[in-house]
Amino acid sequence: MSDNRKYYYLKLKDNFYESEEMVILQSMPDGYIYSDILMKLYLKSLKSEGRLMLKEHIPYSPEMLATVVRHPVALVKEALMIFKNLGLVEVLDNGAIFMLEIQNFIGKSSTEGDRKRAYRKKIESEKVKLLPNGQMSDIHPPEIELEIEKEIEIEKEKKKSTKKKPANADFTSLISSYTTNENLIETLNAFVEMRISIKAKPTERAFKMILNKLDKLAQTDEEKKLILENSIMNNWKDVYELKIKNQRGYNNARPVTTNGNYDSSGLELL
Fold first, then answer.
1. Phi then psi dihedrals of residue 184, to 5 deg
2. Hey, which end of the chain has fewer CB within 10 Å, N or C?
3. pLDDT tens across 117-167, in order?
4. CA geometry: angle at 193 spanning 191 and 194, to 5°?
5. Using CA atoms, how far apart are residues 180 and 169, in angstroms rounded to an integer?
6. For the residues 40-68, what does the mean pLDDT come to?
7. If we measure between CA atoms, which residue out of 126, 137, 62, 134 comes closest to residue 94?
8. Which residues are within 8 A (CB) of 155 and not within 5 positions of it... i.e. 6 or more apart?
9. DSSP secondary structure string, 48-90?
10. How far apart are CA 44 and CA 8, in angstroms?
């Protein structure tokens, strides 16, 4: 026979107990009992998507909840007060208890923001029903909507921030760990600025490779400085070996080929 029953379950992230609320809760005396009560209330409210009412219209008293969660009434009363202070539950005037964080743990809709907005509207709708006819709520709907929209935007930004982005190289720390020579530091910074100006900003990995290549091409800081200056003057993305000596010691760095050919600028090609 096929199983046509509906099953309800919580989907908890692996850092659920690392949240600020749970850390504070479990650090209290009897904190682990409170967290057990909270979890049982979450599970009890699943079928009604976070709303705790017996048969939809009978509010749970602390005594009834004590029976449900199998803990003493006094502990249940203390737990409910703590949950309210931590913003984990909201108790309406009709006794309905709403588990405020449960939308993070139950089924999916289009977005998490949509679920939160629908849930807040459900709570506010029930609050309005409790007011005498003609009486205005002390919570202004436009402000609520604005807050909900902000929550949705925050959720969107969080999702964007989780997408993989290129690493933003920290050139200052890379350069300072590479050399203490002030002239070389200045030239390295100028090389980075040149790469940025030609819209070819190097990644951290690429810049480390350039520094390693400099070590292989030059024996002294002065040679490294000359190599970098030639790349800066020619807007080269890479660094090349100094090939021809002159009175200063070295001439332009040239990408040299094995057959001694030169490119159209007069530089010997690799």
1. -70, -40
2. N
3. 666 776 777 777 676 664 545 544 555 555 656 666 776 676 665 554 444
4. 65
5. 19
6. 86
7. 126
8. 111, 112, 113, 116
9. GTTEE-BTTTBPPPHHHHHHHHTS-HHHHHHHHHHHHHTTSEE
10. 10
CB 97 within 8 A of CB 51: yes
| Residues in a beta bridge with 90 | 98
Q: CB under 8 Å to 92, separation ≥6 — which residues?
A: 98, 123, 126, 127, 130
Report which of 155, 143, 86, 79 is spatially closest to residue 114, judged by C-alpha positions. Answer: 155
- Reading the block at residue 132, the tokens are 């005498």
Q: What is the pTM of this model?
A: 0.40
Question: Tokens 């659920």 appear where?
Answer: 16
The token duo for 108 is 């999916």
Cβ proximity of 113 and 123 under 8 Å:
no
Tokens 């208890």, residue located: 97
| Cα–Cα distance for residue pair 268/145, rounded to 1 Å | 68
User: How far apart (Å, rounded) are the C-alpha atoms in residues 255 and 239?
Assistant: 9
CA–CA gap between residue 126 and residue 137 (Å, rounded): 11
φ/ψ (deg, to 5) at 58: -105, 115
User: What's the DSSP call for residue 139?
Assistant: S
Pick 25 or 260 by higher pLDDT: 25
Residue 99 has which token pair?
A: 């588990």
- Beta strand pairing status for 51-52 and 89-91? unpaired
